[in-house]
Design a protein that fits this description.
This protein is mainly α. It has a domain at about 30-65. The protein contains 2 helices and no strands. The chain is rod-shaped.
């Protein structure tokens, strides 16, 4: 029986990595960005990646039918 090696976790791995509100993250942003700007560009990125996925999926679906 082969046992997987045990993962050695650092004590810092249990530090909280989430924010309760968007305002909590505002103080920790780099380059002086505003949280609203980060959220806006994240949504634009997600929308563009969704559009690209749908286009690739449709092209693949149409090519398999031919």
């Amino acid at each position: 029986m082969i046992l997987a090696p045990r993962l050695m976790l650092l004590p810092l791995s249990f530090a909280p990595v989430a924010f309760t509100t968007a305002g909590d993250a505002a103080d920790g942003l780099i380059f002086g960005w505003e949280i609203a700007t980060v959220q806006k560009w994240a949504l634009i990125y997600l929308g563009a990646s969704l559009l690209a996925f749908v286009i690739v999926w449709l092209v693949g679906a149409l090519r398999t039918r031919v």
